[in-house]
From TrEMBL:
InterPro entries attached to this UniProt entry: DNA_helicase_N/primase_C (IPR016136), DNA_primase_core_N_sf (IPR037068), DNA_primase_DnaB-bd (IPR019475), DNA_primase_DnaG (IPR006295), DNA_primase_DnaG_DnaB-bd_dom (IPR013173), DNA_primase_Znf_CHC2 (IPR036977), DnaG_bac (IPR030846), DNAG_N (IPR013264)
Cofactor note: Binds 1 zinc ion per monomer.
PROSITE patterns, per the entry: TOPRIM
Annotated SMART domains: DnaG_DnaB_bind, TOPRIM, ZnF_CHCC
Record protein name field: DNA primase
Entry note about domains: Contains an N-terminal zinc-binding domain, a central core domain that contains the primase activity, and a C-terminal DnaB-binding domain.
Gene3D superfamilies: 3.40.1360.10, DNA primase, catalytic core, N-terminal domain, DNAb Helicase, Chain A, DnaG, RNA polymerase domain, helical bundle, Zinc finger, CHC2-type domain
Subunit annotation: Monomer. Interacts with DnaB.
EC number: 2.7.7.101
First and last residues of each zinc finger (CHC2-type): 40-64
Amino acid sequence: MSGLIPKHFIEDLISRVDLVELIGSRVPLKKHGKEYKGCCPFHGEKTPSFTVVPDKNFYHCFGCGEHGNALGFLMKHDNLGFIDAIEELADRIGVEVPREQTPGQRPPPSDALFATLEKAAAFYRSELMNTARGKDYFKARGLTGETAATFGLGYAPDAWDSVLKLLGGSDAERSRLLQTGLIIERDNRSGHYDRFRDRVMFPIRDARGRTIGFGGRVLDKGEPKYMNSPETELFHKGRELYGLYEARQASRTLTRLLIVEGYMDVVRLHQAGITYTVATLGTATTPEHLARVFRICNEVTFCFDGDRAGRAAAWKALENSLSQVREGRQIRFLFLPDGHDPDTLVGEEGREAFEARIKQAMPLSEYFINHLSAQVDVRSIDGRAQLGALARPLLERIPAGIFRELLADEVAKTVGLKSGRLSSMLGEGAETKPPAVEPVRTTARPQVQAGRRTLIRQAISLLVHYPQIADKVVLNPALSTLERPGIALLIDLIEELGRRPCANTGALLERWRDRPDVGHLATLAAQECLVDAAGAAKELAGAVQQLGDEAARLRTDFLLKKAGLTDAEKAELQGLLARKPPVDTGA
């Protein structure tokens, strides 16, 4: 959808997202009083200095200084753009991202492509309802009408031009059909024909539920058995997972995902109640797939057939997973009995028995060592040396950290080396060396820089930590004449938050994202505030009153000494003199 995203929506979104849940799905956190702590994901460390403050929707690392709100965390940690991060947060809480349409603005080309794919999906669904051939196939596979509706299943007629006739009436429409892969140009360039014919259809949806492509399965014998949409502007099979949208619709708080190989496996497992199932789209699991999965949950189980092809696919999945392995994440491997795939096995033994298999799935570390050990003779020195040689380049793909060290120690034990010896051979180099000058760390939080904390800085800090107290403040008109660093920011904060209240620190920083003072506000947010909201409101009122009195005194002195006052200045002076004489606070 085109148009700008309203700022108030972004602010509200940040306030509604559970920051602990979001960060905790990527970084192991432990509760520490009212806060949560863990090792910083932005720099290597063994002593936790990364803190999440849930009531302020703010995180900060006292080691490297990284800080921000939910949106900033996604952009930094998941390497997402601003819009993608907003979409990710909106998807987490199940809301649609609104857009402000500019008058005369034309929608982007992708909108028209989405519309074409949705029309095709609706056509395939109607054909399934009206054609016994497709319905009979799904019934024979044990699917219910409710499941078919949940996944938007359909049927592509046994004709060369069904979609072409329906949706390709103009050159522009045919162009969109080509761009989405729904039709193919004939070799002699004399026309086009439908890509999908006489196949049951599985629409592939993105995180927002929009159709981005299709998978089609033959009903009888034929090749290929499964056919996917080609790579397009909207569809990238190395990034998408079939069933992820449906899994997130079934549960907003996914704790694990089961990755299988086929469309029917996903649909049948969902029908059985195992709604956390997804599938790759005719390709091996990629690091990009897993990076996306680990944004959602910390536990992944790969499910493969127990035959040679299944085990080869499993090892490929392990190799592609290594760059995503780290402490706090669990990757397991489930191998099914010969002759079974998830679809048939869950139909035969039911949900409880199948989930019992998932719970007994083999951890990545165990599969790693077992697979490599099976290729050598571990009884001989030569074989154990070969095992070490096989393991070393794979271990080097794993990010440095506790998991890699533990797995390397386990491999070392298998090959007969001392604990830690293999880790020292992995060429960690500067990656794990401490800095030349180790920063001094204390158990207490860093306090404000040396020197007296000014009233202005104190007032701004209170507003950063408790934006909701701004409406308790009455500004002295003379305050704007006070020539002190930070006074303009303080006035701006009070006036802005008075007009539009802000829920918490994270939302305030988002509102100030594009302003030059956001860095100062973030620095103050990272410092400890020793009072509660009520105490902060009282302190803020006192500080602003003292600053206002000081401003009034200085302004009065200035006007009394000035020659040739304007009428406006005379009126201003009379108003100031009518006030109770302010006390010189020395602020």
